[in-house]
Amino acid sequence: MLRDIKSAVPGSAGGTLTADVVEYEMREAPRGTTIARVQVPAS
Question: In the structure, what pLDDT confidence band is assigned to residue 26 with cuts at 50, 70 and 90?
Answer without folding.
Answer: very high
